């Protein structure tokens, strides 16, 4: 299955239960323009509803992973009016920021694990994006920066909320206050990225191998892992344990375990049923 959907900002290839989403505007440094913000959540929904993918890999093309937010998003007078009543302008801007936040939160809301493969610069809004992924991998030349501070604003679409859950808070504060770059080695030492690869080609090979191992497992077990880890991040241990018990009581069935044991006995890889697709109840 190849290129099931068409987007301005990225290409999508689905094969062997892996959806590869690749940014495709290298001449514009893969900046996150208006189309990007509109398309990303739709892309996640399309993959979940209309493909057999069990894991999503996000990578990029050109010199940099992404130079971050296209400032044209905020200079669009239709989206962000520059005149009128201050209270109404503020309410509108708040709503725009919430919509941008929801776009990146789509990586967390999708049932499938999302693996980010980063090369070159991952700047500003692009860092917000990869913070919302399940796992991150990068090339030796990759670097990350909370660029918004240097531009005179506070990062507002996820980095300051998610990054302190991923690396020590004191480091996050330094990175946010200074806006300095941190490279692949530092990102790996801090645990922000899982693995550093020599180049883009070996990174994609490595990440695709990891994705294949994920896709080979029970989709129900994997989505349960994602649901529980995300929930535990934002709740107490006690609440998370109770939710785990409720999930297990409702979702656990022995079917996939039996398939696993049978496959091991036959020395074959198990074959699991896909999850039911997520559909809009009101779509035709």
UniProtKB/TrEMBL annotation:
Q: Where in the cell is it found?
A: Peroxisome
- InterPro entries per UniProt: ClpP/crotonase-like_dom_sf (IPR029045), Ech1-like (IPR045002), Enoyl-CoA_hydra/iso (IPR001753), Enoyl-CoA_hydra_C (IPR014748)
- Asked if Lipid metabolism is a keyword of the record, the answer is yes
* Keywords annotated in UniProt: Acetylation, Fatty acid metabolism, Isomerase, Lipid metabolism, Peroxisome
Q: Per the UniProt entry, what are the Gene Ontology biological process annotations, in alphabetical order?
A: fatty acid beta-oxidation
- NAD in keyword set: no
- What NCBIfam families has UniProt attached to this entry? PRK06142.1
Similarity comment: Belongs to the enoyl-CoA hydratase/isomerase family.
| Name this polypeptide is given | Enoyl-CoA hydratase
Q: What species was this sequence derived from? A: Marinobacter pelagius
């Amino acid at each position: 299955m190849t290129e099931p959907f068409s987007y301005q900002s990225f290409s999508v290839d689905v094969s062997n239960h892996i959806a590869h989403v690749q940014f495709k505007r290298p001449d514009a440094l893969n900046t996150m323009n208006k189309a990007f913000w509109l398309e990303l959540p739709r892309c996640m929904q399309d993959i979940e509803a209309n493909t057999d993918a069990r894991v999503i890999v996000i990578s990029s093309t050109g010199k940099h992973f992404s130079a971050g937010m296209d400032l044209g998003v905020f200079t669009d007078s239709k989206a962000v009016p520059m005149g009128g009543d201050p209270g109404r302008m503020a309410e509108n801007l708040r709503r725009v920021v919430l919509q941008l936040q929801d776009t990146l939160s789509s990586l967390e809301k999708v049932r499938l694990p999302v693996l980010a493969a980063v090369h070159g610069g991952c700047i500003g809004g692009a860092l917000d994006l990869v913070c919302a992924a399940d796992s991150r991998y990068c090339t030796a030349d990759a670097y990350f920066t909370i660029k918004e501070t240097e531009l005179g604003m506070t990062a507002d679409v996820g980095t300051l909320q998610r990054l302190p859950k991923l690396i020590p808070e004191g480091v996050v504060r330094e990175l946010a206050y200074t806006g300095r770059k941190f490279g692949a080695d530092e990102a790996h030492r801090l645990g922000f990225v899982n693995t550093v690869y020599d180049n883009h080609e070996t990174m994609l090979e490595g990440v695709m191998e990891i994705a294949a191992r994920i896709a080979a497992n029970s989709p129900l077990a994997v989505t349960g892992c994602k649901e529980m880890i995300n929930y535990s991040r934002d709740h107490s241990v006690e609440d998370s344990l109770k939710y785990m018990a409720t999930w297990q009581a409702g979702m656990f069935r022995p079917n996939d375990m039996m398939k696993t044991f049978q496959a091991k006995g036959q020395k074959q890889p198990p074959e699991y049923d896909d999850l039911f697709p997520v559909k809009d109840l009101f779509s035709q």
